[in-house]
Amino acid sequence: MASPFLTQVRDEIRLRGYSLKTEKAYVHWIKRYIFFHNKRHPKDCGAQEVKQFLTWLASNRKVAANTQKVALNALVFLYHKVLKHDLGELGFSLATKQRHIPPVLEPHEVKLIIDQLPERDKLIVELMYGSGLRVSECLRLRVQDINLNRLAITVRNGKANKDRQTILAQKLVAPLEAQIKHAIEVQEKDKNNGIGSQLPVALMRKYPKARYTPAWAFLFPASHHCAHLDTGELCRFHLHQSAVRKSIGRAAKLAGITYKRVTCHTFRHSFATQLLTAGTDIRTVQDLLGHNDVKTTQIYTHVIGKHYAGTRSPLDNL
After folding, report:
1. Which of 29, 35, 171, 281 is most buried per CB count within 10 Å?
2. What's phi and psi for 163, nearest 5 deg?
C-alpha cells in the first residue's frame, strides 16, 4: 500500500493532467530520493539534500544526462507543487552529456523482421516504421485517429502532451480497415456487458456515452479487461507494450538480425533515416516525428553518413 505522502504526490500529478508515464517516473525518483536520505521526510530536507542526491547520481551512479534531468524535474515538482518550498539555486554536478547514434535498420532488414511477425504485431511495426510512431503512440491510437481517405494519422497527447499528424502508408489501408472492424466488434461485445473503452475521467464525465462509441475504441484492444486507474470500474484498455517488445525480439532473432540491437524505437529511428536519405526536408521530418527542436532531428543526419550535407570521403576521389 502506498504511503499517504506518495498518494498526495500522485493526486497532485493527476490534478495537473500529467501522463501515467510521467507519474510513474516522478514517484520512482521521489522514492529513491527519500531512501537516499535514510527515509527522512522531504519536508525535513531542502536544497542541500537535493544537491547531494543529484550529484550522487552523476558521480556515483554515472547516470545519463537525461536520467538526471528526469530526477531533477521530479524533485522540483515535489518541492514547488506539493511542499510549496522554493529550492533556489542548486549548483549540483551535471551528468556527462552523452550523445549516442541510434541504431537503424536498412529497408531489407525491416522486411525480414516484418515477415516473421504475426498479423497483429506486423501491423503495429508497419505503423511505427511507416509513420514514425513511438510504440506508446501506436498502441494508444483510437478508431477516430485514422483517416484512410487522407492517408493521415492523428497522434493525440504525444510526448509533452502534444497532438500532431503524420503520414499513413497506402499499403496499410486494407489491413487497417480489417483492424478497425475487429476493434469495433470487440467494443460492441463489451458494450453489451456494460463495459466501455478506457477514457480519462474528465471525458467520461463530460461525454458519458463516449466510451461505448466506435470512435473511441482502441485500435489495438487488450485481450482482457482491467480496472480503471481512477474509478476502479471495469474497462478495456489497449494492448500492453511488453507484448510488442517480446514479439519484435523473437522476430529479429528468427530473421537473423542479431548483429544490431532491435527495439520498438528502432523502427521510428529507421523511418526518420529513410526519409532524410530520400531527400526529405529536415523540417518536415521534425514535424512528422513531433520534435520540439530541430537539433533532436539532426542526430539522424549523422546516421546516414555520406548523405550528410553531401559530404564524400576523400578516398572516393582518388
Report:
1. 29
2. -95, 150
Q: Give the integer Cα–Cα distance in Å for 234 and 194.
A: 9
Residue 134 catalytic? Answer: yes
User: pLDDT band for position 202 (50/70/90)?
Assistant: confident
Q: Which of 261, 265, 283, 302 is catalytic?
A: 265
Please identify which of the residues 33, 79, 129, 300 carries the catalytic annotation. Answer: 300
Which burial class, exposed, middle or buried, applies to 62 when counting CB atoms under 10 A from its CB (0-12, 13-18, 19+)? exposed
Q: Is 268 among the residues known to form the active site? A: yes
Active-site residue identified among 26, 134, 228, 236: 134
Taking only the tens place, the pLDDT of each residue in 11-47 is 899 888 788 889 999 999 999 999 999 999 999 998 8
Q: Which of 191, 211, 238, 268 is catalytic?
A: 268
Residue 224 annotated to the active site: no
HSE-CB at 115 with a 13 A cutoff on CA atoms is 10
The one catalytic residue in 191, 211, 236, 291 is: 291
Task: Report the length, in residues, of the chain.
Answer: 318
| Catalytically annotated residue among 31, 159, 182, 250 | 159
Rounded to whole angstroms, how far apart are CA atoms 306 and 276? Answer: 12
Question: Residue 157: what pLDDT?
Answer: 81
CA distances (Å), origin 85, targets 32, 68, 88, 180, 241: 19, 21, 9, 49, 37
Confidence label for 309 from pLDDT (cuts 50, 70 and 90): low
* Domains defined for the chain, CATH in brackets: 4-82 (1.10.150.130), 107-297 (1.10.443.10)
For residue 201, what are the contacts with CB-CB under 8 A and spacing of at least 6? 230, 231
